[in-house]
Amino acid sequence: MPAYERGGRGGGSSGSGGGSHNPGGGMGGGGGMGYSNRMTFDGKSLRKAIQRRTVDYNSSIALGTELRPSLRDHRDLPILRPNPNFIVNLLPTSFHLNNPVDSGATKFWTPEGRRLITGSTSGEFTLWNGLTFNFETILQAHDTAVRAMEWTHNDNWMVTADHSGVIKYWQSNMNNLKVFQGHKEAIRDIAFSPTDVKFATCSDDGTIKIWNFNEGIEEKILTGHGWDVKCVDWHPSKALLASGSKDNLVKLWDPKSGRNLTTLHGHKATVSGIEWNKNGNWLATVARDQMMKVYDIRMMKELQTFRSGKEELSSLSWHPIHERLLATGGSEGSLTYWLIGNDQAVANIDGAHEQNIWSLDWHPVGHIIASGSNDHSTKFWTRERPGDPSEKSDEKPDGLNANEQHWEEGSFI
């Protein structure tokens, strides 16, 4: 699974991701083309030459910076028409706050947004270029499957965990400085406190542990779930943890006292993903009962329930710019976009992957979303550009498949 720096969420048998950061907030159009050379070894061709699209957001950020002083609101934005000539008018997603659907990018990134890190079941990290999608390097990071990856909020460190319960600290240059045993069974998720002083891990052993990041010392063990704990997330500004488990329950915790504050009984099957909205008021959960629920913790009630109606939901990710927009991944490979306030999905990509989508992560700029699947592939999706066809006749949607390094037929770009 892939990860742009700035928080990644791991899990699933295909691995986990890291993350990426960019101070902008933009959307890149399809720029130039990247090429991979034919390689030979002992006279044998290893891989044919292929073309890869480049998704460059720099031009849109430059245009936005130039126009910002003269823009009063969205009515002053450059006109976009269904013609490739209008691609030059594309602006960053932060300029389209009036219409979040424009930012739909039908996994995890490095903090500056230039690279994507993916973790695999073989314990390897793979580093990909976030603009040209070229393979850059690969390293053996863990002895067992990578299950979770998370960047600190200051972007200086990445913490990863594997199927055997081992936790590792990494600098941004992928230098490993600390290794220790965190749980006796597989660790499924990692979440940092707002100050990066502490972090939480959840495991198949049914516990959540609070760790001192600097010393790597266990401070508290949270118990209360009756089965494997599959996901955990720390509130963006408060001392509050949320977790989801195979016992179908969502629990809120006080990490200081270790006390279970409340339990939400909204799901009827394993809770597979959980994430706080950046506004700190909404908590989204997905489960194998084919439902996604968004809770408003100010009232401790469901704000909205979304039903996929056809497959279990296994992952989710809030958009970094538009707080009402989020994406979910399904057990049969569908990628779906939802908008708070709308009963139906605003967009859906059936067959985005051939198997379960274990992880999703938006680029920090918000113009690309990366998906990692049990089909051993990582794909990148970006919003449609002016002139792109709105309907696809091919069975498979288009996206860059990082593992196979080619563009699938029929793209959602």
Automatic annotation (TrEMBL):
Name the principal localization, coarsely classed: nucleus
The organism's place on the tree of life at top rank: Eukaryota
| Nucleus listed as a keyword | yes
Q: Where are the WD repeats?
A: 139-171, 180-221, 222-263, 264-305, 350-381
Q: Kindly give the InterPro entries that the UniProt entry links to this protein.
A: Pfs2-like (IPR045245), WD40/YVTN_repeat-like_dom_sf (IPR015943), WD40_PAC1 (IPR020472), WD40_repeat_dom_sf (IPR036322), WD40_rpt (IPR001680)
Look up the record and give one Gene Ontology term from the biological process aspect.
Answer: mRNA 3'-end processing
Q: Where is this region: Disordered?
A: 1-33, 376-413
State the compartments where it is located. Answer: Nucleus
Compositional bias, Basic and acidic residues, is annotated for: 376-398
Q: Which portions of the chain have biased composition (kind: Gly residues)?
A: 9-33
SMART domains, alphabetized: WD40
- One Pfam family per UniProt: WD40
Please give the Gene3D superfamilies that the UniProt record associates with this protein.
YVTN repeat-like/Quinoprotein amine dehydrogenase (2.130.10.10)
Cellular component per GO, a single term: mRNA cleavage and polyadenylation specificity factor complex
**Which key words are in the record?**
mRNA processing, Nucleus, Repeat, WD repeat
Q: Which residues form the signal peptide?
A: none
Described function = Required for 3'-end cleavage and polyadenylation of pre-mRNAs. Also involved in chromosome segregation where it has a role in chromosome attachment to the mitotic spindle.
What protein name applies here?
Answer: Polyadenylation factor subunit 2
Recorded source organism is Basidiobolus meristosporus CBS 931.73
